[in-house]
Each structure stands twice: as structure tokens, then as C-alpha cells.
Amino acid sequence: MIKTVLVPASGSSTDDAVFATALAAARALTAHLDFYHVALSTGQAAVRAPHVDFCIGEALPAALQVVRDDTARLSEEAVRHFHAFRARHALDLRDTPERALTVSASFLEEKNYAQDRLRFHALHSDLVVLGRPSHTDYLPPHLIEDLLVGCGRPILIAPDYSPKTLPGTVVVGWKETAHCARALAAAYPFLQKAEKVILLNIIEDGVDLSEALEHLAQRLQWHGIHAETQSMAGTSRTIAKELARAAAGLHADLLVVGAYSHRHLREEIFGGVTQSLLEYADLPVFMMY
């Protein structure tokens, strides 16, 4: 069951799509939206600011002032974005749980230690909604990976546009791995609400999982989920590109995949399928590690 959705508000241009994706998900599940912003100190933001480390002498105070102004602006914009979004969609403002038939929202701002604080709140939430990396908000460059590995919760990656409804048609990218099994189980609330569910395998090295997909589809019926199955031959494209192409061809509204990530294999694994999905999949992507 997904009832609490963590929605980081960066104050950047990604907020529109992130907020809309979170609302579409929350409406499908009648969930509560926890909007959250971390106001970074100048020092912490400067670590990830371009060119600051090259500044010396009189140029350094000027560069730090730019960072200070940027972080203050992002905090102001995050608050403004939240209040405008809440008003536009008439969301109830609520900090304590109540039995409700509508989506509710709350807003919290904290200071510093973005990675640690986001992980803290992600650990205590049912779902986390994040935007594609924009490199304009001074957040850690590997935030998505670190939360995937560190919070034990599913993460919904918003597309660059604002989806109207979820879940619609859901494509599950399937391999016989524990990562995929965890992602599938975490996505049950969406699959049970979906108009159509398609279990999809991209055939690699001649291994066709059609029989496994049929067995899995039968098991899902115990959860009230009726799924179609499809296997597609891989080409010279990467698996990520194949999944993205196949999801587009199937008119998917949501793609569910198991995320592949490991800290000491960042470049080899996360830099592969998972990272590439963020680049090529032009739809919301539901991930679980």
C-alpha cells in the first residue's frame, strides 16, 4: 500500500513535472503528498557549483555571493511553487493522518545536509518522486542512485512533461532477477489500478523468457492483476533504449523496472541500464533496487 509520497521541491524548473507526476500518482492511490525542500548553506552548495573551485583572490567572494543568492532564490521558489500548486489543485493542507477520500499535502523545509535528510525522509515514506537531473539546484549529482540504494523504497522518476493521469497502461520490464521482483511487488498498487498491464522481456543472448512471463502473469491474477505478455528481440541498441522504444510503441503511461546499482560499480552498472533509462525513456519510470 502506498499512502505517503515524498516530493522533493528543488525550486528549479523541474518542480512542475515532479509535482504533476506526484499528484497523478497520489490521485490513483488517494495518498498524502509530503513536499520537502532542503535549504543548502553557501558552503555546501559551493562544493557543487561550477567554477567556484577555480576562483582565487577577489573573485572568490563574488562567486560565493552568486551561490548564496542562488540558494536563497531556490528556497523562495520552492515555497512559491508549492503554494501555487496546492491552490491550483485545491489540495487539503494536512500534517496529521486522517481517513480521507482526497489527496492531501504538507510542506517542510530543513537546512543543510541534503543527502542525509532526503534519505531520512525517503526511508519513512512509501514512495519518492524525483525529477531528472537538472544540475541547476546544487543537489548531489548521484542523488537518484544513492536514494535507490539507500532508502529501500520505490522511486518514481518524473518525465520532462506533466502527466495527466497514472497509471493508465503500465509496462513492466522483466528479467529473472531479484531487482525486478522487488520492483514488481512495490508497483502492485499501480498495477491493480491500471487499465492495461504488459509484462515485457527484451530477449538477450537468445534467452526467451516467454514461459516465465506466462507463469508470472498467472501469479499476478491472485492479486487481481490481469497482465499481457510480450517478448521482443533485442537489437544493437542498449537494453535501456530497447525498453524505452518498446514502451513508447506500446503507448505506455508508466514503465516499471528493477534498478541496477552498486556503489563500487557505479560506472559499470548504474552508468548502464538505469542511467540510460533516465535519458531515453520519455515517460514516468518506477524503479526499485
Structural category is: alpha/beta
Major sheet characteristics: 11 strands, mixed
User: Beta-strand percentage?
Assistant: 15-25%
CATH class of the largest domain: Alpha Beta
Please explain how this structure is put together.
With 289 residues, the protein is an alpha/beta fold. It folds into two domains: 4-157, 3-Layer(aba) Sandwich (Rossmann fold); 169-288, Rossmann fold (3-Layer(aba) Sandwich). The protein contains ten helices and eleven strands. It has helices at 15-29, 42-47, 59-88, 114-123, 143-151, 178-186, 188-193, 210-220, 239-249, 266-280; strands at 4-8, 32-39, 92-93, 104-111, 127-130, 155-157, 169-173, 196-203, 227-233, 254-258, 285-288. The chain has an eleven-stranded mixed β-sheet with strand order 3-4-2-1-5-6-11-10-7-8-9, sandwiched between helices. Helix 4 (114-123) packs parallel to helix 5 (143-151). The two termini are 18 Å apart. The relative contact order is 0.15. Residues 261-271 have low confidence and may be disordered.
Short description:
The chain is 42% helix and 20% strand. It has 289 residues and is an alpha/beta fold.
Question: What distinguishing features does this structure have?
Answer:
alpha/beta; Rossmann fold; single chain; 10 helices; 11-stranded mixed β-sheet; 289 residues; 2 domains; 42% helix; 11 strands
List the helices and strands and how they pair.
Layout: E1 4-8, H1 15-29, E2 32-39, H2 42-47, H3 59-88, E3 92-93, E4 104-111, H4 114-123, E5 127-130, H5 143-151, E6 155-157, E7 169-173, H6 178-186, H7 188-193, E8 196-203, H8 210-220, E9 227-233, H9 239-249, E10 254-258, H10 266-280, E11 285-288
Parallel strand pairs: 1-2, 1-5, 2-4, 3-4, 5-6, 7-8, 7-10, 8-9, 10-11
Antiparallel strand pairs: 6-11
